[in-house]
Amino acid sequence: MGFFPQPFLDGYKAIVFNGEAKSMVFYAFGIFGVQMMQAAIVNASFRTDSASDKAAGVLTLMNAANWVFFALSDGSMVILDTLPPNFPKDAIAANCVLFLLMASMNINAWIGAGSPQPDWKKMKPTGPLATPMIVMIVNLLGFAVGCSFLTEPFVDQFIPGLLSKFNPGAKGAILLIFGNAGKQMIFNILTLCAVSAAEPGTADTNYRLLRGWIYGMFFYMGRFAQEAVTEAATGWPSPMRVPSFISCFAALFFAATSIGDWPITVATKAKSA
User: Fold this and answer.
1) What gap in Å lies between CA 212 and CA 214, rounded to an integer?
2) Is 251 exposed, middle or buried (0-12, 13-18, 19+ CB in 10 A)?
3) Which terminus of the chain, N or C, has less C-beta within 10 A?
4) Distance between CA 77 and CA 83 in Å, rounded?
5) Which residue segment(s) compose the domain that 191 sits in?
6) With the C-alpha atoms ordered 212, 214, 215, 221, is the resulting torsion angle positive or negative?
């Protein structure tokens, strides 16, 4: 989705997109792909033995919830026949099966970890590095809410008038991708809060979470440049380009500076004789 959008699209045998519609689909793919990558980076951050077992266990719980949600969300569109026109129902149904399989694997991992739960009353990050974490959350929250619940007016706010050019199939597919991207943003926020609340105020856990988000945002800034090239090449209006850049860059700069200034000790192995 992020690196090979055309082969990804071909694999689903979805409706054929051409011209500006194709550019817009790839634009949406990039945003969704960044959020999926950010989730993957956070998971990778807790793969080592040195990570908190409880935090890693809570992460698998949130992963399971994420997969189940998308299985139900996408599956309901197949059952209720509310997918965009000509959208491949069989491919989406197969996706839902895969999502449920991933959910079951994470549930098994969560049970194997002792079924840990976060402190649901302390979902706001606390302790070391909590402030940059909250700044990153606030920055993403506006995009998450807009893409999830106000999808069409939100997209139209960024690229005015473009959606009206597309046929119902292309427009519906584009809105579906943006909407799902927003839902993934929400789950990324909930996951960060829940994992941080596994052991509230733990420096190591907060460091791993913030580092994962920073890496994800670094990649998004690259996507941001690519989006600017797309907009310049197509002549799309982009009135929100500068405000979005300022917001994202400021949040990233503050978070990266904060984590760079945080005193850490890198463990080293003793040299063998």
Assistant:
1) 5
2) buried
3) C
4) 5
5) 5-51+119-261
6) positive
Contact between 196 and 206 (Cβ < 8 Å): yes
- Sequence-ordered list of residues with C-beta below 8 angstroms from that of 142, at least 6 positions apart, any chain: 247
Q: Cα–Cα–Cα angle for 209, 215, 216, nearest 5°?
A: 90
How many domains would you assign to the chain? 1
- Asked which of 13-22, 157-166, 199-208 is least confident by mean pLDDT, the reply is 13-22
Mean pLDDT of all residues in the chain?
92
Which of 85-94, 174-183, 246-255 shows the lowest mean pLDDT across its residues? 85-94
In a domain, 267, yes or no: no
Residue 180 covered by a domain: yes
What is the rounded CA–CA span in Å between residue 24 and residue 208?
Answer: 33
Establish if 70 belongs to a structural domain.
Answer: no
Residue 65 lies in a domain: no
User: What is residue 250's DSSP assignment?
Assistant: H
CA distances from 64 to 17, 34, 59, 69 (A): 33, 20, 9, 9
